[in-house]
Amino acid sequence: MPRPGGQSRALSDLAVLAGGALAGFLLARSRTAPGADVAAEPGPVPPSEPPPPSAPEPSASPPPPGPPAALAAAVTLPPVPPAAPARRRRFGWKRVLLLVVVGLLLLAAGIAAYVYAEARAVVGEFSAGEKQQVVEATRKELDVAPRWDAEARLAAEEAAPSVSPGPSAAPAVDAEPAEPPAAPPAAPPGREPEPSAAPVAETAPAPAATGAETTTAPVEAEKPPEPTTLLLIGSDRRWGETATGRSDTIVLVRLDEANDLVSVLSIPRDLLVPIPGYGEEKINSAYALGGAALLTATVRDYFGVRIDHFLEVTFDGFGDLVTQIGGVLLPVDQRYYVPPNSGHMAIDVQPGYQRLQRDDALSFVRFRHYDSDFHRAARQQLFLREVKRQIRESRYDFVKMRNLIRAFARASASDIDSVGELWGLANAFIRVPADRVTRVTLDASPGGSSVSSYLVASQTQLDDALRQFLFPRRQVKEQIEASKELAAPATAPKPEDGSTTTTPVEGLVVDDGGVGRTLIEPLKPAMQRCALTALPPGFSWPSGAARAYELEGSPAIAAYATLSSGDSLLLMQTTLKDPPVLASPSRTVKRGGREYEIWFESGKVRQVAWRLGPTRAWLTNTLRNTLTGAQLLALAQSCKPLR
Known about the structure:
Number of helices: 15
Mean pLDDT: 77
Radius of gyration: 38 Å
Low-confidence stretches: 1-11, 32-45, 162-217, 490-505
Oligomer: single chain
């Protein structure tokens, strides 16, 4: 069986040979065709003074008798016109242009053939070897519709608010599929169903009466492409081993290409759900019991969402992806430290915007020792966002992208078997800007005991998460409203006792007692800097909260204030020119003579940045964006320059 890369090399070599042969043929033909170069013939001597008469050379025989002189004088032949000079034919510019165009077309065809062959090889790698059995089993579950339709039910409830809510939990696996409340009830046997008040199809206007019977045909508008839902699974499986492994990451990704929207729903791995054939278990047990196929069926039926494709990425694939990218630039929100041999995954990462390599990146996205599954899900979503940003910046580096995709495909499995489908999904994911990506985490309440703890989601919590995931336009609308509010300065409420508020900026934050200045002032990198003089209520500066370091060869300062692990606010300052995280702000506002750039995410403010001369400074919201935009702007205004 030929190797996947052999086909790509063969096609590219064939395209180059064909291009060379055609270019040579055209060149040879142009040189031999009329208009090509010809040998130049000597032209007549230009007219000049007639040469002086010369004496006739002596001849051995007398000259032949000529005509009489009178006849010679009477008969005069007309002068023969001089022959036109033979011009040197030049190679026409049209032929040069034609050859250039043909060469470029052949080069483009060769590149396209090579890219297609590479993509075809990647698609084949998704189901190569032992992955084929996994893909075939999971594909059967992808062809099955969910046991209830969450989108239809939630849409019907929005259209008819009086409809009573569903049960207090998601439908059990063995229960009958739930019909949307707005659908008409089925008629009893033997009776025709009554006509429903369903929307009438739009029809074309009726023509004027002409005496003849006419009919109207419905006007069918072209439907935009349906959103695509992808189940992303992160596992510690190693291809080639018999053990299934465990699923550490379970994420639903919805790509709405028609509206340039992406929704990401993170599912806690300790969520208690009904698993087909096994009863209620933690959702990550579905992967351990039946691999990607059983996990797909469990997610599909519990959330009521049709899944179009699955993508399983192993930890090896994750590491290869990070390596090929060259490390991932991430805003690390706080200090992460777990010593080796502690029974938990070791990690030693300092706070600040920095490039994390293979092992540190994996430890960061898997960390949950001091916080929760919800914060780990937020870290994973943050990682996906920054990887998407870096891939988008490198999408024209063909060699880098080829190596990245090859390494990623070798450690991944998926049912995607079409180059066009793979290209469409990847392009839709990369093209959508960050402020049109909705990040959702399913909230759930703790249950069980200290020995066997799990999370339970109520129907309200499940519906809230599904609304955000299935209808992301609402988040965009909230973002627009929040942007309008930030454009106008907020007003602080006056204390009831009539005293003057002690908060430094608009009553949204509290004075930090000068601790922030004390932390940053001893750090003396060669750059302008500032120190926060206020914090959100309940936040504090922990020990060792600030540090000076080099960021991509430029001086930088990072400082963080925290409410608890996973709920930390990061202040960054650096002279690095154009940090990638500060690309493409959502909008700009002015406050107190200073201009602030604002980034939105999921309808909330994610980041606020400003300038201190050549220094770029910015504040990053907590992992779950718990601070309001007004609070972040108030904090930014409290950052006082240091000498």
